[in-house]
Amino acid sequence: MKIVRNSFQILSILVLFLFSNCQNDTIVEAQQEEAVHQKAPFKSTFVSKQDIENNDKLSDRMRRLSTLQQSGFAESSDSELYDFTIDASYVKLVENMETNAHSYTFTVVRENSNSTIENVVFSYNELTEDYDASLVTYHFTASQRQEFLKSRHVNSSYEITYEQLALNLADIYAENSEPCTITYVEYHIPYGSTNSYLYSTNGYVNNQCEHEYDEDPCSTYTDIVIFCPASSSSDDSNATDDNTTNDSSNPSTSGGNGNTTNGNTNDDTDDETTNIITSPITREESMQQSILDCINGVASFNSYDSTTIDPEIFEQLSFSINDWITINNYLQNNNCSEVSQEQIINQILEEFDEQIFKDESFENNNCLNSVYTEMGKASTVNNYLKNFEAKFSVAHLRFSASTTLSNNTNAETSAPNNYLITITFNSNNLNRPKLSVARTFIHELIHAEIFRKLLSVANHPNLNFSNYTDEQWRAFIIGLRNNFEGLYDYYVRWRWNIPQGQTPSSAQHEVMAQHYRDTIKQALREFDNTQTESVYDALSWSGLMGTGVLNPTTGLLTNSTQAWINLSQEERLNIINTINTFNSSNQNCQ
User: Fold this and answer.
1) Residue 582, H or E segment
2) Please, what's the b/e burial string for 262-289 (b: 16 or more CB within 10 A of its CB; e: otherwise)?
3) Which of 67, 385, 476, 478 has its CA at 20 to 30 Å from residue 263's CA atom?
4) Contact 148, 117 (CB under 8 A)
């Protein structure tokens, strides 16, 4: 199956139901533009192990670090810091095109790993004409790590820490004088953009993302500014983040320019400022690059070559890091032979075509994963899930979990992107009964099914209608009318042809409230057959009443669905009361 990635831009027609991870709905004022983005000074490329070996200075510094790690300094308080192995299978070279500063970033392997990302960075010091080593750690939560793996950036706050790595025992036991001040500045560069966007300083978000190409992975760059007062030495100090903040409109660094040096001075009477530029890299990314290098070589993906594979498929697989390591080891142990390549390609494509994707954030959540497992055994939900298996479907389905959704959002279903529909659950909103979570599950699954139907007539991997030609749009409308007349009717009435002055409504919620509640009730009965019909009926209305503020007297919301308006006031209030009673009298899922 060939996966094609196109730019996904928010459009005017369906803006209320097309979601994006990196889109701020506020308009940036003109006077803020210069502070938010500037011409991108950064560039990153992957280099191979052979490239590293050909760099004599870098290879020598790496050997020094390895020798120190093997020397056995157990009595040192820093021994735990050095208890890692550098993975040199694929390395990221990061360059500042304005200052000519550069660094090599390696992934790190530890015996007890967690959701954080650790990188060893060898940054070039122009004054010493050699490389300095440091350990940079991105303290991600499990959901943030998953977000980074999918989009190469994280749209919420997290801590970054920096530790200078000594390359001999004398530096380890040296006394620190005065502590250095560390400032961490992060930039995002959208795919295909020539601008870099200031994102955060010391973990504090300065500007929400303003990316133009939100569905493509961003590049994240970290500029670490180390200021050591006179009589201090950044070579001797293990610096820590003091959480100092900078004016968001005038950060202490601007992509590496300014009054900074790219190395340490030798005169202790002068203050020292050092810049280290890097870009986070995960072991998953390193393994994937190594696998692609083995299979595709210097060639790009070619649909006529049986031993090349589309890299986009990798982004949509939910393999664990151990899976990627196993695949890479198999290829390397077989010297990347054609036979081994074909075996791995077939294995990956088979997995891709058969699986419904479950992110680690979803699988590791006991509440969500147990609801998924139990609901999948019931015929109603199972029939919906089958619609997303490759032999039946034009779309694939992914389940994910996040802690960054708004408090009033239990879950959201994104429009198709490269044939992939993602349902993201709010991990913070699981303090409710399991049946209520199951209701959210089937509700979002119906959204996904509607998107699948729209995609089936679009003959396109995305539903970004603003990029359609007049001919494509006309073909889509005709196809929708001919194949799904009911959906066509609701979209025309509630989204595309509403009377002037009428507030647009969610066409999907309107059609679900009118025609899908029986399906929701049946799925709830199959999940838990111990409740009364009034409970099933009331829960089926959750999420389908409308949006806005609830009027406790009438039971109406600011923007109620027509089906909810059609109920009597007594019916509406009874339903709301039944839902509240059920939620308060049953054990929470989490």
Assistant:
1) helix 569-584
2) bbbbeeeeeebbbbbbbbbbbbbbbbbb
3) 67
4) yes
pLDDT reported for residue 487? 79
The first and second tokens of residue 561, run together, are 């669905």
Q: Which residues contact 201 (CB under 8 A, 6 or more apart)?
A: 183, 184, 185, 186, 245, 246, 248, 251, 252
Task: Judge whether 290 and 297 are in contact, CB under 8 Å.
Answer: no
Question: Is residue 562 helix, strand or coil?
Answer: helix
**Half-sphere exposure of residue 387: CA atoms within 13 angstroms, side-chain side:** 17
The pair of structure tokens assigned to 537 is 């009926």
What H or E segment, with its residue span, contains residue 109?
strand 102-109
Q: In angstroms, what CA-CA distances link 494 with 10, 318, 348, 418, 508?
A: 19, 36, 42, 26, 9
More confident residue, 435 or 237: 435
Select the more confidently predicted residue: 39 or 339: 339
DSSP reduced 3-state for 229 = coil
Q: Where are the beta strands (DSSP E) in 61-101?
A: 85-96
Distance from C-alpha of 163 to C-alpha of 587, rounded to nearest angstrom: 45
- Helix, coil or strand: residue 589: coil
The residue type of 252 is: S
**C-alpha dihedral, 222 to 209 to 424 to 560, nearest 10°:** 160
Give burial (CB, 10 Å; 0-12/13-18/19+) of 427: buried
CA 586 to chain centre: 34
Q: What is the DSSP letter of 472?
A: H
The answer to whether 282 and 319 have CB atoms below 8 angstroms apart is no
Measured distance CA(84)–CA(118) in Å, rounded: 10
Least confident range of 66-80, 138-152, 489-503: 489-503
d(CA 227, CA 206): 21
* Token pair recorded at residue 178: 């005065």
State percent of the chain over pLDDT 90.
Answer: 24
Sign (positive or negative) of CA dihedral 158, 216, 399, 12? positive
Q: In a 3-state reduction of DSSP, which class is residue 41?
A: coil
For 457-477, letters b (16+ CB in 10 Å) and e give bbebbbbbbeebeeeeeebbb
Residue pair 261/226 in contact (Cβ under 8 Å)? The answer is no
The DSSP line for 477-502 is HHHHHHH-HHHHHHHIIIIISPPTTP
Query: Can you tell me the distance from the alpha carbon of 172 to that of 237, in angstroms, rounded to the nearest whole number?
Result: 9
Per the DSSP assignment, residues forming a β-bridge with 94 are: 44, 103
pLDDT tens digits for range 68-123: 877 765 445 556 778 888 888 778 999 988 887 899 999 988 877 778 899 999 99
Give the C-alpha separation, 489 to 481, whole Å.
8
- Secondary element (H or E) of residue 536: helix 533-541
pTM of the shown model: 0.52
Angstrom distance (rounded) from CA 476 to CA 472: 6
**Using the 8-state DSSP alphabet, how is residue 89 labeled?**
E
Q: What is the DSSP track for 311-345?
A: HHHHHT----HHHHHHHHHHHHHTTT-HHHHHHHH
Tokens of 486: 């009911």
Angstrom distance (rounded) from CA 270 to CA 251 = 22
pLDDT (mean) for 282-297: 84
How long a stretch of residues is the chain? 590
